[in-house]
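Figure 3 (text version): structure tokens given as input.
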């Protein structure tokens, strides 16, 4: 490998996008080896976030670009539930206390400390839908072209939120969010509900949609949905008993 001149090094460093984390594999494409990256970090030309992960110094880390990097290592990782709803403009009228970013994925994993120290977040492995790992239903890139993390469409995000009611998600907050979700697509919800493996989420979606008289609820064909047996679904939660009819 030909040596890198200072001029070429300056050009490589200047072309790094501010706030966008890069790996040693990315740097290797510009002929910067792992050893050289360590040297440049010691010289102050690169900031090391963790072993093998660097960023251009002097700039705040970009959330979306960081998520894109995490998605390369965690299968199916995406912005989900309440966090995805907020990205789509569906949120409570009165802001509650700060809540960490909600991330879901298909693999057992732990978020790196360089990420959580800057962006408080929770990650959980969840198989909520019958779907292939590489073809998540109604999950799409969102954000500037160079940094597009995967984000649940609002219909999927709603079901992700409802699946956590009684566990990590208060029912009252879910009710407030779904009450303002007028613009959901019935066709998307129908498909997602048909592939949903969580009876609680299916029943809650139908129950609350009807209760608030939301337009999409009237267009769902409940006869094709996996609502479980005809018995009532009963679970105890911190807010009391949660009882859902089929």
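Below: residues designed for each position.
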């Amino acid at each position: 490998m030909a040596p890198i001149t200072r001029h070429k090094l300056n050009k490589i460093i200047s072309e790094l996008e501010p706030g966008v984390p890069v790996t040693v594999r990315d740097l290797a494409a510009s002929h910067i080896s792992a050893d050289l990256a360590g040297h440049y970090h010691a010289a102050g030309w690169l900031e090391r976030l963790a072993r093998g992960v660097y960023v251009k110094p002097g700039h705040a880390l970009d959330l979306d670009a960081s998520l894109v990097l995490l998605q390369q290592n965690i299968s199916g990782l995406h912005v989900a539930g309440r966090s995805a709803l907020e990205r789509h403009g569906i949120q409570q009228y009165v802001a509650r206390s700060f809540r960490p970013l909600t991330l879901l994925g298909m693999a057992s994993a732990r978020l790196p400390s360089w990420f959580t120290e800057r962006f408080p977040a929770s990650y959980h492995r969840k198989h909520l839908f019958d779907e292939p790992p590489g073809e998540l239903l109604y999950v799409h890139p969102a954000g500037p072209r160079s940094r597009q993390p995967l984000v649940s469409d609002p219909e999927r995000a709603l079901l992700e939120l409802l699946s956590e009611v009684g566990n990590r998600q208060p029912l009252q907050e879910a009710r407030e969010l779904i009450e303002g979700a007028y613009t959901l697509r019935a066709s998307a919800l129908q498909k997602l509900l048909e592939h949903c493996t969580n009876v609680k989420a299916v029943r809650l979606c139908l129950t609350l949609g009807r209760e608030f008289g939301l337009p999409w609820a009237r267009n769902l064909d409940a006869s094709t949905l996996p609502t479980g047996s005809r018995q009532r679904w009963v679970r105890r939660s911190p807010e009391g008993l949660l009882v859902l009819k089929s």
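The mean pLDDT is 86.
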